[in-house]
Amino acid sequence: MSLKDYLDTKVRDSMEHRRIQLYAMLFLFDVAIGFASFWLAGKVYVGENVSMRAIQVMQLTAPIYLVIAIYNRVYSIEALQNLRYAIWRMGLALAFAVMFFLVLTFYARTSADFARSTFTLAIAIAFLGMALVRIFVSLRIKSQFGGRVSNILLIEDGGPEIRLPGAERVTADPSLVENAQTNPEALDMLGRTMLYNDRVIVSCPIERRVFWTRIMRAAGVRGEVVSEALQELGALALERHDGWSFLVVSAGPLGLRDRLTKRAIDLAFTIPALIFLGPIMLVVALLIKLEDGGPVFFVQPRMGQGNVMFNMLKFRSMKVAKLDSEGARSTSRDDDRVTRIGKFIRRTSIDELPQLLNVLRSEMSLVGPRPHALGSLANDKLFWEIDTDYWQRHSLKPGLTGLAQVRGFRGATETEDHLTDRLNADLEYIRNWSPLADIRIIFATARVLVHPNAY
Prior knowledge:
The chain is of the alpha/beta class. The protein is about 50% helix and about 10% strand.
């Protein structure tokens, strides 16, 4: 619709007022539920007559919780729009408040003045009560506000077409835009259009970006301009330093804490696995040696994290004279290069077990994008010739298993789709990494150790 139609037909109010009301309601309910839960927990222990003492404990706990909750974004836009986030943040704030309270009472030597059972029951009741309130608020937001707690306006002025769910879309009148800097009435119309919007996004040609920037700054709104160039670059953020503006186009996918967590998961599984599977690996090594007297391990250079090469270990499954060090030929179902023991260890994925040593040496991780042979082909093309995003797989350590593997994307890459399916899964894993995702993939791998495409 046009700007004029938008002003004439749309009855708008500020979502900010609604958010403040919802924040206030959550705040008051949290306090009320906190006191009610401690009073109720005290009443459960009638013989101890601790109801008033429990309320006194809550009087000390409540301010601690509320301060932590405010700083922990318990009362935020995201908490209103995302129920899981809201309950998680509330629970986290409650847990921190409990820990802080216990430390405080320990040093004040007052921990014996209240029953621990009463305190535990009160916290459990408080958590359940606060969670129920948030479920109610979430349902109310969906039913009354359509799930939105912010106003987003997208102004289309001849720029690239974009799709933004939940945004109001209006088309700018070219004559209005041209006259806005000299005509107060035109400027007034633009100002009233942007009024009560939490975000205003403009899609316009590059020559009008400065104009819209000035208009949005003068309107005092959060203004954003769509840029095709930034879209092509995949810009992540804008940084300013010494008067210069810089586009952030790349960032490590994991911070220090996440890297340490991922490494801890690797070691927690790898060390016991090596101890438990050690005898099996020794038997396999002996069988490989007895079959043709060749080396036990097949060592092949693969691309690792940060596009840095490393030597990946596997149990040798092919005849010595027919080893494919470059990996240019994918293994087929009836491959004449594979030895008798090789067929078994490939079918059961035992040939990959030496990579536990790569994980121990921090060259690989248990979970991550599988490292491909440098000469691997799909449809007679090198993998990186098929998709320009291929190299992004190397922003994390390669994995012994990965999301692509548990989804069944393994075996020969005969078509380009075989490669893109794996690549999309790998990039999805990198974008959405979490410790829980790693653990899920590790356990899910047990279902695909023996796979029809493992040959």
